[in-house]
Design a protein that fits this description.
homodimer; about 250 residues; alpha/beta; Rossmann fold; seven-stranded mixed beta sheet; four-stranded mixed beta sheet; 7 helices; about 20% strand; globular; Class_I_gatase-like (chains A, B); serine-type peptidase activity (chains A, B); hydrolase (chains A, B); dipeptidase E (chains A, B)
């Protein structure tokens, strides 16, 4: 995995920032460090592929990078095989993974990223599908994919848009930690809850929590790591999380 | 469907009430009206079947009804076929539906309720599985069921624990209405968002919104109905929603 280059963002929208604004610095240095000039954008998590590609592309162009939507390619598999960088945006995780399976892109993306070191950027649903499985998504199952198994670019799960329960909340639906604990009643993999504004930067066998500081004003955490049968642990931006890649 | 008797609750817990306390009146009259003495409880949405059955059973006994957990029956299908009433509790919707499929209970429960008029009580996940599909659950997909299609005791979807977005919220994850709109980009069925504390009572071809009044203190809605391509509509407890059964 010495070539692996990943930037796995919790979200593209963060309170107090414009669209993707919180990530501009990390995104620019990630792509420049990898000598990327043109990004292949995957808009499959939403239904308006043109509009979504334009929204992300306008930010990328402002930062100095070109952007092409995979949906405009005559052969999406070939587009993946020739891409300088792959960016999968957020939306609905089930729709996204279902589309990746239907267009037979799961294997080709995985191979490009893990074997050839093609940089991968994910946001929200695009971060969910980069992990072992989509089993820790927050999204509604609006379509049924062939499998919940995903790209497995990292050997654990991520919960994007992570947030601790409100101390005085009156809603009785399961809290995020309760939902992740339900996952751990049946599954073993660690789950990294990434607060909005944070991202996991993976450089080969090293993983670092990145983002603006403080990532989410008013919250005491940037990420919370859940392991089966253990107390969860808080991490701040700058933390070395490489140990998660060795599990 | 002249025999159909359903009480589909949004949740078993409501702010300001003890466990199931908000539903005691509706639950008692529903079971008494149907001459039920013994309830078959289905605890499959959680992993602690004994503890869950005891928790619900203690409330039912206090109200004057007996309660047996289906997990203690030597033959669960036979238990369904001889049950006076079936009560499916909440927890994780994916785990629940997966277990119903694995134990080959989907067909038998559907037949008992729709053909023989056996009363059905659902709460949260138990309400999700009573509808067309589990595609409007709030739960994490911790296991993959064979299908998202559910008992289809009613021809629409329900979103339990429904809540409107907070007016001044800073979290940027999709709101509940945004998630339901994503469902409607790919699916046609109406989605009834049931606020905590409310339930849909179905008596044959009539459906009524029930619950304490106000169901959720401080909120202007008891239920919100979403239809594809239309503005959502608010309903108060007492509303006749029979039209949903004819779609």
């Amino acid at each position: 995995m010495g070539k692996r280059q990943l930037l796995l963002m919790s979200s593209s929208a963060v309170h107090g920032f414009g669209y993707l604004e919180h990530a501009e610095s990390d995104l620019t240095s990630f792509l420049k460090h990898n000598s990327v000039q043109e990004v292949l954008f995957v808009p499959y998590a939403l239904t308006d592929h043109d509009g979504y590609t334009e929204r992300v592309g306008s930010v990328l162009r402002k930062l100095g990078f070109g952007c092409t939507g995979i949906h405009t390619a005559p052969d999406p598999v070939r587009a993946v095989q020739t891409a300088q960088a792959i960016y999968i945006g957020g939306g609905n995780t089930f729709l996204l993974l279902d589309t990746l399976y239907r267009r037979q892109l799961v294997g080709p993306i995985r191979e490009r990223v893990l074997q050839h070191g093609v940089p991968y950027v994910g946001s929200s649903a695009g971060t969910n599908v980069a992990t072992r499985t989509i089993q820790t998504t927050n999204d509604m199952p609006i379509v049924q994919p062939a499998s919940f198994e995903a790209l497995a670019l990292v050997p654990f799960n991520i919960n994007p848009h992570y947030l601790d329960p409100e101390p005085n909340g009156t809603h009785k639906g399961e809290t995020r930690p309760e939902r992740i604990n339900q996952f751990h009643e049946l599954n073993e993999a660690p789950v990294l809850g990434l607060a909005e504004g944070t991202a996991l930067f993976v450089d080969g066998d090293r993983a670092t929590l990145v983002g603006p500081q403080p990532a989410v004003p008013g919250t005491p955490y940037d990420a919370r790591l859940f392991r089966k049968g253990e107390e969860s642990v808080l991490y701040k931006v700058g933390s070395d999380l490489s140990f998660l890649l060795r599990e």
